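Hi Y.,

Following your request, here is the sequence exactly as I used it, all 693 residues.
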Amino acid sequence: MAALFLAVVAVVAALLSVGSGTAPAAVPGAPPTPPVYTKWGPPLTMTTIDGDEFIIDANGVPHRIAPTGDNSYAIAAHDFMNKQLEKTGLAYDPKTETGFQYIYQNDEKPLVPKGKIASGALSGTTADMLKLAWSNGQLVSVDNVDVTGTSGPDATPKAISRHTQTINNKLPNGTKYQTDNVVFNADNRAQAEAVAKEFQGNPNVRIVHPGSNYDTGEFEAGTAALKQAAGHLFTASPSNCPPTPAHSVQRPGLGSGVQRAAFTVRRTTDCGEQVQQKAGGLAQGFAGGARDAGGIDFTRLELRYLADPGPGNGLRYAFQAPVAASGKGGSLTGLADARKASDSFFTWLQLEPSTFWVNLNPNEPDRIIDSGLGRTDTGRVLLEADLMLKKTTGKLIHPDTTLGASYWRSLSGKCTSFRTWIVPAPATVYTKGDELHILKSPLNVQMEAQYLKQRGGSGTVSCPQQSVQVQEHNEALFRRMILPRVVKAVNTAPEYADLRRVYLSRVAAEWYRELSRRKSTTYGEIIDEGDVDAYVTREKWKPRDTFDAYVRSYTKGEFKVTHRTRKGDYIYTNTYIYGGVDFTNVRFISLSDDQMKASWPTLAQNVGQSLDEPTKDGAKGQVWLGGGVPAEHSGTEEKGKGEGSPVRGGKAVEDGEGVVATTERWLPVAGAALLGVLVVRFVVRRRRARRRP
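Below is the corresponding structure, written out as tokens. Let me know if you'd prefer a different format.
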């Protein structure tokens, strides 16, 4: 038995080492070589090797970046295609770190020679360019593009046949094993049109003639990755199977260690015929947006539907966005926002509701945010919204504006200081069984006296030296003149879009918590576990950064004016406004079936259709984009459980007395095979445990 154990351990160690070390050079006709993930770095990242910058694609292949192209055809095509991206609103934006871009590749002495690698994909290291897709600073896809062209104006059938053969030879089934995508830079428009006819409908060939602006349009490159990324939304754990060959995609919310482990362990499980994510409305909307920015305003993409039929069936979701003639944001912006919604949903499930607050108070630098929430993008969004709240108020009360001047003239006494809090207003929802429709999700802004009173505390006196009458007058004035405009900004202004987005996920998570108390759900078992490792912020940010920015705002003021207002013996010059965001409690207004049919008669139909394809609601000027998580990501399936027992994620609970039964089952296997599986599970779990803080 000991010998068998050692043999199994040796096999497992060998399997886990797949991808490490140096892969043999690929040559035409040779069998594919394994990927080299652990040698060059995590997939879909930028790195420096021997002083040169490299892009690592999803197959683990390093691509050396070049400052310029090495031939005139590549330079002309590079400039033209990037300008085309700018015209359609799809180009990379350095501020948001989102969009598509073409960059030059240095094809001299590639670290991985051209040819086929694992799973039959091409290394693409000798192509002229790379097409990169970025979403909120994260690489979504890396695709290789080679450029060919001609300076001869000939458009005869013989010449066109020659150009066609050159293009085909560069592609995966050609003789050069060089690239996945080819650009042909024609000498004239007539030649471009003739070559284009030979490749009509081919998504991997693009024909351009920059001089006449002739262009057959963007590659499909990147759209497959967007579809896969949409399929990974609302998935709580990584897959051990590699990405689809020749198209790169990275799972959201995972650190590099997890990414590397997920790819390295790929050989320990039989991926077999992988369960393919259904290309629902959201995936199709992203793919369409990668080619055309029109039709959907992705900057206002919001989660509005969630359903969980239970383990074995996966999770269904649908987003809503306004229809837009010119489009806004593009699909990569939509993907970033959808990821925020997905990550926030799991953050709200993993952490206890008592931690769902942030607090910017100059007197409380040690009570900014819960430590767990402070590691996530959700916590960052809440803190930045709290800081934005001060800035919004500062603009409204600026003494050089009409509103601000009127406000200052109407104040009494010699002091004014109000603290405000962003809190949930009752959300209007429609629920039916295991389905949730979020119809309205307004946010409110409360003044401190009202906020504390609702929580059983006593009101504070901001200016104790003044009379109660003066204090009440100033508070009523602020409530009447300023507060309604602050509330409107929080609910409609673009700068609060992320706050509204994570709050929608908070509403969905609160409903999901309640659903998980009544029945077994896909992710019920992770509720209140406190593990947010997969959802930590991708930005170089820590809570203290926002607090320090607030202190600068507090001490220097949001505005500085040179004139002063004198009334009697007093001069009024400054006001300080501070507060927080508190999402600890969510209240619902549930509609009846009749109310739902009267106000939203086609909603259920639109949502259902959106799971298969983008669906427009012409009456409301909205488009629905749905999707679902494959059943392979679902929780434990329950059988033989009695009726009426509340369950959470495969754990039965009787009358609130805790866990009394588990439904995890092991299939009987042969002794040696079972030992091998146990060793693999042990190794993987130990590796995961070491990643946790």
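The chain is about 35% helix and 20% strand.

Thanks again,
Q.
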